[in-house]
Every structure is written in C-alpha cells, then in structure tokens.
Amino acid sequence: MCSICRRILDGLNDSTSIKSTALKLMTKIINDSFLKTLRREATPYTPVWMMRQAGRYLPEYRASRKTAGSFLELCKNKNFATEVALQPLDRYPYLDAAILFSDILTVPDAMGLGLHFVEGEGPKFKYPLQDEEAIFKLDIPDVEESLKYVFDAVKSIKDALNGRVPLIGFSGSPWTLATYMIEGQGGTDFMRIKKMMYSRPDLMNHILKINAETVSRYLACQIEAGADVVMLFDTWGGILSHHEYEHYSLNYMKVIISNLNILGFEKIPKIIFTKGGGQWIAKQAKIGADGIGLDWQTNLNKARNEVNDQITLQGNLDPSILLSEPKVIEAAVKKVLDDYGVGEGHIFNLGHGITQFTPVENVSVMLETIRKYSKQFH
Amino acid sequence: MCSICRRILDGLNDSTSIKSTALKLMTKIINDSFLKTLRREATPYTPVWMMRQAGRYLPEYRASRKTAGSFLELCKNKNFATEVALQPLDRYPYLDAAILFSDILTVPDAMGLGLHFVEGEGPKFKYPLQDEEAIFKLDIPDVEESLKYVFDAVKSIKDALNGRVPLIGFSGSPWTLATYMIEGQGGTDFMRIKKMMYSRPDLMNHILKINAETVSRYLACQIEAGADVVMLFDTWGGILSHHEYEHYSLNYMKVIISNLNILGFEKIPKIIFTKGGGQWIAKQAKIGADGIGLDWQTNLNKARNEVNDQITLQGNLDPSILLSEPKVIEAAVKKVLDDYGVGEGHIFNLGHGITQFTPVENVSVMLETIRKYSKQFH
Lengths: 378, 378
Known about the structure:
The structure is a homodimer. Chain A has helices spanning about 5-10, 15-25, 35-40, 60-65, 70-75, 80-90, 105-115, 130-135, 145, 150-160, 175-185, 190-200, 200-225, 240-260, 280-285, 300-305, 325-340, 360-375; strands at about 100, 115-120, 120-125, 165-170, 230-235, 270-275, 290-295, 310-315, 345-350. With about 375 residues, chain A is an alpha/beta fold. Chain A has a single domain (about 5-320, about 335-360), classed as TIM Barrel.
C-alpha cells in the first residue's frame, strides 16, 4: 500500500500533512476547468473529456498498438500507457482532462483470477468465483505490490502531462467487478451473479466487501501516485432492480468514497457513473460523490433538478452520433448543452465510450462546438 | 387483410357493426380479471401472466419441441402453437391470460427479409436492409396472406381456450423491428441503425412508417382472429436517447394505436412495453395505450404517480429472482405488490421473459403468493 494509506492504517493519522500532500498534488494544473467544475466554481466554458478517449478510433493509437503486445501487456507497460494517454490531448487542443490508460478489471486480476482478453470476445477470467470455497479464499491483495504497474503508469502520465490538464484515475465499481468475477466474462445474461445475490446474499456481500476495500486502497494509491480525480465505473449497476441497486452497488461505492475521505482525500473529486442508472440519480446524489456520470437516456435538465443543482453532472452525448455528419453532431452537442442550461456544474462527455469507428474529424467538430457554444452559459 | 380492415379501407366505415363485432369477441371470457384491470375496473386480486410463459422452462414444452422442427416452423404450425400456448395454463391455475405463441420478427419475415434462427445465436435475417436500394424496395406486405399462419394460430388458441382467460396478441414495435431489419441480427451494438437514424433520418422514417402501417394491419387481423388484447414489444426502445425515443419509437407506436382505434378497435386494450424505458413513463402515458409494461429497474409506486394513476401498469419482478428459493421469491413478490399498493390498475408480470432455467415449482410459489397476498389491496 502507498505511504499515506499505510500511515493511516498504522494509526499515524496525521491528517494535516496528508491534506497538504493532497493539496500539493492539485496545485500545478494549468488548465483546471475540469477540476473547477467538479468544485462548482466558475469556468469560461464547459469542460470536456471522452470516455475511452485514448483508443482505437485514433490512427496513432492503432499504430502504437501494432508494435506492442496484448491489451493487458499494454496496460502494464508504463511507456505505452503514457504515450497513448497523451495522444488525444496532442491531437485535440480542447480536451480538458486526461485519463489513466488501464482496464477496469485490473483489481480482480490482482486477486488472482487470471484476466485475459480473447480477440473479439472481450475480457475473460481463468478462475471465476464459481463455488463457496473459491469465494472464501478470496482476499484483499497486496495492492501496492500487485498493482504497482498501474501506479507507475499514473506517475509516468502525470509527469508527461506536466500540469497541462488534470489526470483521472479510475476503477470498476465493486458490483461491476463482481459481475465479471462471478460470470467469468462479459456479454452474459448475469444469471450466475443474480442467482447468488438472491439466494446467497452472504456470499455476495462477502465478495463486495472485499472489492470495496481493495478498490479503496487501489484508488488511494492512484491518488498518491498523482491522480487528481478518481472515477468509479459502475458499468453493470443498471441491471439491478431498483430495490437491489442501492444495497448491492451504490452502498459499496459509498464505502469507497468514505474510505478515501477518511484517508485524507476529501479534496480529491470523486465521480461515479452507473450506466443505465438514470432512474436513481437522487439516490446517487447522497453518497458524497462530487460528480455523477449520465448516459444518453437521461435528460440533463431533469437530472440537474434531481440533484438540486448541488452535484456536478458529466455527460451525456450518445457516442453513435459521432458516426454521422458535422451538422448533426453540432446540433446534438448544442442540445446537450441547452439541456443543462446556464450555470456551472456540467462536464461534457459521451454517455459511454467512444466507438472505434468514429472519424477523428467528427471529434473535432464536437469539441469545437462545445468550446464555442458553451461560453454563453458561463 | 382481414374483413373488418378491408371494409374500413374500402370506405365502408360502418363503425356500429364493427364495434359490435369487437365487443362480441370480448363477451365470452370466464376469468376476465386481466381485462378488467386494463379497464381499471375492480377485481378480487391482482391478475398475472408471464412474458414467455409458454417456453423452455416447462418440461412439457421441451417435450413438445423434441417432436417438432425449428422454432419458426413451430410458430407456423397452429397445432403446436395451440398446444404450447395452453401448457402454462394447464399447469398453473392462477394464470389470468394466455399469449399467442409466435415471434416478434414475423413481420420483417413477411416483408421478405428471410428470418431464420441460428442455434445459440438467436434470430438472423438473410437480407437485412443494408443499402438505400433495399430500403426503397421495402413495402407493406399482403399481411392477410403472408401472415395467415399467425391468424390461424390465434383462432386455434382462442378456440382451445374456450373463454378460460383472455388471449393476448402481439408484435414487435416499429423501432424494435427496424433494429433487427437493419442490424440483421440481435446482440449487436446498434451502430448501423444509429448511424442511419442520425445521418439519414429520411431513410429511417421511411422504414418506420412501413413498419407502423404493417404492424397496424397485423394487429388488426390478430384482433379479428380473436385476440382480446394486443401488446407492442419495444425491446430496444431503451437504447435511444431521451431526445430520440419519442420521435423514433414512441410516436410510431402511437400511430399503431390510432390506426387500431380508427379501425373500430377502441375497446380492445393495448399495452406497450419499452424495455429500459422507465425514465419515459410520463411520455408513454400520452399515446392512448391502456397498459404500460415496466422492467424491474422502475419503482412501481413512482411509475403510478407518473401516470397519475390513470393507466394500468404491468410488471415488474426481476425474472432471475425465480432462480432462487421460495422464501426469497415470496418476499420479492410481496415487495412488488406493496410497491404498487392499494387499488386497481396493476397486472403482475416479470420485467422480461422468464428464463429457461427457472424451476417450475418456483413459478407456483410466485403465482400463489400473488393470489393470496394481493387480495388485501382490492
């Protein structure tokens, strides 16, 4: 574990020096519009970044990947991670944040479940949690050691950014990690995990507690390594019923936010994003997050009312719009900005990751429209 | 086309005799609690049916299938369709409706797109709409002729039911049919259809208009053949943005409801169900439907408020609960009934089709709990 967390857990709760360390990390940012919006401070325009902005739609990314190995090897190679994390910023001057190049499933991999990627089929685990014995063997890994490659990448990207924009660290949410850990892969009907949740809530909560504790440490170490903001991707929270979402996903994200605050990272903004969770925004607003991510099914104006204009909202253009024409993109971007309306507290983003088939010039159209059109709202 | 529709379209708008025909079809039902609830009349308990209630979780269905051919051949065989449509009613005395045994994709098949089912991969089309030429060739088929096997199945099931419970006819919604027609199969990321929708709304609307007109005729013929209620399955409306849902899915369902009313079927209850559409219930309430289906992500109480307690709600147990234990099922069923609360206007259902791995005895637990526990609310 990183030095700060170790000190906390060793009982040396010197919160003054911790806070000053955390603050120090935040002082060097040149373009801080993204951070300001998360603090609900005034900015001259609406800041923007894109989920999967370092990815396959960029020809320079595809070129870099040709010379490298598997996706997981790439995540573990800090030079590659740094190179590709900066590619979208070098191409697009109007991006206001960088994000760590990594995968949401590094945590269960560090727990020994054997993550690998099958071409065209997505992530798979060699040792999914398929029986009680495996579940009770599950334990919090030595995060500092087993996920060192991630913190090395954070440091390296942070250095390379040299304060241009803030760096976002991230993890999968405890529930979302658990879906892969139990189902063994993506693209399933989630019947394994749901059966466990309904029949054996004791086992389900055991896994989620371990995930929440591990993710807390994981994000603490990312912050210590230089992440200015952290985000929890709750990609599969939306498959839960309205009764179960709060208990099995939201509450464990709350645990992580509380843990990070206890560790002295109150000032580090935290964003949560439950895909398909637009009906539960009022609940999401109550767990201490600074930002809530939204997909394109949700009306930003309605969401703004639901959070009483107190929490920053991030989203929510349908990424498939970027497959169309400049005029359509311009109109759609303006609609999103109009939906949010006048005032601070909106970070522009897509409602999900950018697709690999997106023409690079369409991203420019989006970014230029945001920069120009949003000024009237600030 | 069926005789009633033909008369309408021939300008012989004898609405009195049409209404009496439609009403005559509705007079013979013995257990009419499902129909009463759709009319918001008092019933002694909450009625229930299950999406895919005639399906693979039933050993008698699996046995029947062994002796028959492919899924599509089965749909086209009225004796088989009748046999399996009645199986769940014979097993479970507490089911309050039967549903036509068919597939949502019969309509594009009748349009000549060549529907077939690949084992383990779901439905595929041999001739998906991949270019402008194919789209402009698309036309309203001779529904009465090309989908005769469906109307024969409706008549046969209706006869076999002999008034025990009402029979539900159905179709895919225009938007949902279009997703398969353009993507060519299920399980995609919907990039083809979204690209068309955003780049070529003219082509998209052309397809949807043809679909809406065809589905109107299709459902009219199902009603004429004996369907007491019709339902539109909008399985993929939930992938649309809140801006596009109304235009590209909801409005075309509205066209169908209006067409059916013009044809004299005002008294035939109409249910719409947009999976993943829980954020748009207030909009759904305005298109003239008598019932709105809900998935498990939506709180029934909140939904009831959103429709001002004026429209019947159908749902919304997570079908995966049926994989667990009787006690869990009992508690979850009670929660759904508690969510809706006192009063008429609730039809119990699952939030999606029952899964093939459901133990048959768990369905009994659900049905018995509904019947006993719901009496206090009526």
